[in-house]
């Protein structure tokens, strides 16, 4: 399942529901991305996430499909916030379930690399010194490149 | 009329998130859209950057891609969520 | 924190408490291991986990320390069940928190490979056809070997 | 008296989880403990397998490691949790 919404969500509750549905799974991996309170220089006040529907949803659905083709997953779940968030708020949640742990770890890692570098979102950070649009770091693109198959 | 959308930092640069424009006859592909709007808005090349991709009617396209009045044309600076 | 106990635990609750404590984290990864209902041949009725205290706890504490030396973690949490469990029960929970996601993913993966192959536990599966002690799979040892530094 | 512990499948093989034994004078290291207990219990080599490690007083040791009455000696078949 995929949910893009400007409403806050509870990652633990999402994990609980996901695990209850993942019948037969031996391994469940979750990733929760939280708004950090520190930008490079100053304290973060707000993080704003912009999406472009339905391109954002379509792209995430394709990445999820690619993960299910590549790894023997029982299920996966992706939640992504949009709108204004405060430090400590959950921005993103990815959960994967499989019989054994390697598939669950790799698929969650793969989906997060997609979400960080290719999902159709833009992020704006507000600190005491003003607002700034944030783009992926060089590490993010490097992480994403790990999944390219030759 | 075509609908032009500016995402991320481009909405700061253009001062708007979207605008309705009537494409001149000479503007029939995405490369021409970039040059025309960049010049119209005196953006000094912000819409010409290679890192800014264009989506036409919800699909990312490669320049030059044909456009026409009625299309939704979106300028997408580098994306990334999480 | 480390908890080895014969009492059931709720992985979602553990994630919730862990995330609340992990101030400043941008990334939280969790792994939950569940008792699977299918053995190679037949339906699992019970899984029994035996530990050898305090060797089990000491070994896990050392692995956790190694993870914190190797990755910039804000915190980590390990829960492991002992005693008798039924299909669907949580056996193991690992959570890691860091500023960025790579450290959290890798440290959780590393800790799980330790728990699967080196933690001092023995597992006995009961099915309709009898009981059987379960040892790590070849894949588990291969996964574990990934972390050896030359 | 030494305390001998048998973990995992070894408790099935020996029929017991632990036993108190008085080590004979000739049994002064872990290699000798393995051979002696394997023979005493007619285990046909189960305690001699290389994959079975010994822990003395809570520390995994390498054969031959000195043992004495009063030690806790544990036979550990291959471990693994999760």
UniProtKB/TrEMBL annotation, chains A, C:
<comment type="pathway">
    <text>Cofactor biosynthesis; molybdopterin biosynthesis.</text>
</comment>
<comment type="subunit">
    <text>Heterotetramer of 2 MoaD subunits and 2 MoaE subunits. Also stable as homodimer. The enzyme changes between these two forms during catalysis.</text>
</comment>
<dbReference type="InterPro" id="IPR036563">
    <property type="entry name" value="MoaE_sf"/>
</dbReference>
<dbReference type="Pfam" id="PF02391">
    <property type="entry name" value="MoaE"/>
</dbReference>
<protein>
    <recommendedName>
        <fullName>Molybdopterin synthase catalytic subunit</fullName>
        <ecNumber>2.8.1.12</ecNumber>
    </recommendedName>
</protein>
<comment type="function">
    <text>Converts molybdopterin precursor Z into molybdopterin. This requires the incorporation of two sulfur atoms into precursor Z to generate a dithiolene group. The sulfur is provided by MoaD.</text>
</comment>
<keyword id="KW-0501">Molybdenum cofactor biosynthesis</keyword>
<comment type="similarity">
    <text>Belongs to the MoaE family.</text>
</comment>
<dbReference type="InterPro" id="IPR003448">
    <property type="entry name" value="Mopterin_biosynth_MoaE"/>
</dbReference>
From TrEMBL, chains B, D:
<comment type="similarity">
    <text>Belongs to the MoaD family.</text>
</comment>
<dbReference type="InterPro" id="IPR016155">
    <property type="entry name" value="Mopterin_synth/thiamin_S_b"/>
</dbReference>
<dbReference type="InterPro" id="IPR012675">
    <property type="entry name" value="Beta-grasp_dom_sf"/>
</dbReference>
<dbReference type="Pfam" id="PF02597">
    <property type="entry name" value="ThiS"/>
</dbReference>
<keyword id="KW-0547">Nucleotide-binding</keyword>
<dbReference type="InterPro" id="IPR044672">
    <property type="entry name" value="MOCS2A"/>
</dbReference>
<dbReference type="InterPro" id="IPR003749">
    <property type="entry name" value="ThiS/MoaD-like"/>
</dbReference>
<protein>
    <recommendedName>
        <fullName>Molybdopterin synthase sulfur carrier subunit</fullName>
    </recommendedName>
</protein>
């Amino acid at each position: 399942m995929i949910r893009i919404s400007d409403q806050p969500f509870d990652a633990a509750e999402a994990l609980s529901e996901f695990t209850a549905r993942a019948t037969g799974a031996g391994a469940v991996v979750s990733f929760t991305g939280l708004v950090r309170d520190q930008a490079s220089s100053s304290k973060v006040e707000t993080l704003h996430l912009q999406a472009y529907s339905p391109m954002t949803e379509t792209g995430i659905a394709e990445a999820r499909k690619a993960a299910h083709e590549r790894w023997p997953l029982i299920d996966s779940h992706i939640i992504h916030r949009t709108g204004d968030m405060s430090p400590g708020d959950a921005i993103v949640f990815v959960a994967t379930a499989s019989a054994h742990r390697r598939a669950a770890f790799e698929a969650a890692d793969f989906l997060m690399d997609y979400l960080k570098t290719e999902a159709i979102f833009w992020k704006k950070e507000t600190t005491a010194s003003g607002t700034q649009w944030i783009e992926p770091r060089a590490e993010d693109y490097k992480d994403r490149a790990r999944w390219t198959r030759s | 009329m075509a609908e032009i959308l500016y995402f991320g930092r481009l909405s700061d640069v253009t001062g708007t998130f979207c605008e309705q424009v009537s494409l001149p006859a000479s503007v029939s592909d995405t490369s021409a859209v970039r040059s025309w709007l960049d010049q119209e808005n005196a953006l000094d090349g912000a819409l010409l950057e290679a890192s800014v991709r264009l989506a036409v009617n919800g699909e990312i396209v490669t320049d030059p891609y044909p456009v026409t009045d009625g299309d939704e044309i979106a300028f997408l600076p580098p994306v990334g969520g999480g």
